[in-house]
Amino acid sequence: MTEEIKIAGIGIAPEVLSAIVSRAVEEVEGIATVGVRDIATNLVSMLSSKNVPAGPAVECSVVDEKLAITVHVTVFFGYPFKKLAESIREATAKAIDAQVGVEVESVDVCIDGLVFPKE
What we know:
The chain contains 3 helices and 6 strands. The protein has about 120 residues and is α+β, with helices and mostly antiparallel strands. Helix 1 packs across helix 3 (about 80-100). The protein has one domain (about 5-115): Alpha-Beta Plaits, CATH 3.30.70.
């Protein structure tokens, strides 16, 4: 387990915050996955002795007793990025407020992949 994030007098494992945010963001229309789940990366890992590391889906830090969150997503083609980012920010802030009870300073959205429909 990685080092706890200490905020509002409690220590929270980053994995717990990641689970809360991931669950909320997965429900946003237009989101394919939270984090990088690239088939090519998975195949390279399976077929070779190389383990291709994937970065964390959600990163959190504390800024002035508020959470600063970065969310990595893969999105479906056809959804405007700006609207998606706003929906992700809103869903993240609501989920953190409801479950953790702390204020969110910022939510940075990284669109790491795009899924095209099969034609």
